[in-house]
Amino acid sequence: MPMTISIDDELKRDFSEVCREIGLPPSTAFGIFARAVVRERGIPFSLSAVSSQERAVRAYEMSVADGIARGLADMEAGDTVSREESRAMRAARRATA
After folding, report:
1. Are 62 and 70 in contact (CB under 8 A)?
2. Residue 70: how many CA atoms within 13 Å on its side-chain side?
3. CB–CB of 22/30 below 8 Å?
4. Which among 8, 12, 15, 75 would be 20 to 30 A from 95, CA to CA?
5. Could you list the residue range(s) of the whole structural domain that residue 84 is in?
6. Running DSSP on this structure, what letter comes out for residue 78?
7. pLDDT over 90 for what percent of the chain?
8. Which pTM does this prediction carry?
9. Is residue 2 part of a domain?
10. How far is the C-alpha of 24 from the C-alpha of 42, rounded, in Å?
11. 48: part of which helix (H) or strand (E)?
12. Dihedral sign computed on CA atoms, order 7, 10, 16, 21
């Protein structure tokens, strides 16, 4: 059954270009999307009103939290370094940055 959708010309051009680069006709890409919606019983990607800047901040916060968790796990395992070793490691990292 045919389906008609409306998108602006610029989006249509950009979408068609990406589909060409992937090697899919746009209709096939929309078909893949439709099958994913049916399979997932929802949109197959996250919809958010969060800005890209806020997402970046959240990603940074998560990486810091992960680092803290890894550090605690290392400490509990007895895998620690002295203050002097830590300073030397930070200095070496700054020197290569």
Report:
1. no
2. 6
3. no
4. 75
5. 52-96
6. T
7. 56
8. 0.48
9. no
10. 23
11. none
12. negative
Looking at residue 54, what is its pLDDT?
A: 86
Which tokens go with 75?
Answer: 């400490």
Q: What gap in Å lies between CA 51 and CA 69, rounded to an integer?
A: 27
Task: State the total domains in the chain.
Answer: 2
Contact present, 22 and 29 (Cβ < 8 Å): yes
CA angle 40/13/9 to nearest 5° reads 95
Q: Is residue 82 part of a domain?
A: yes
Are 33 and 58 within one domain?
Answer: no
Residues 67 and 92 in one domain: yes
- For 48-82, how does the pLDDT look when each residue is reduced to its tens digit (9 = 90+)? 777 888 888 988 999 999 989 988 888 888 888 88
| Dist. CA 72–CA 80, nearest whole Å | 10
Give CA torsion, residues 76, 63, 84, 78, to 10 deg.
Answer: 10
Residue 56 within a domain: yes
**Token code pair at residue 43:** 């949109």
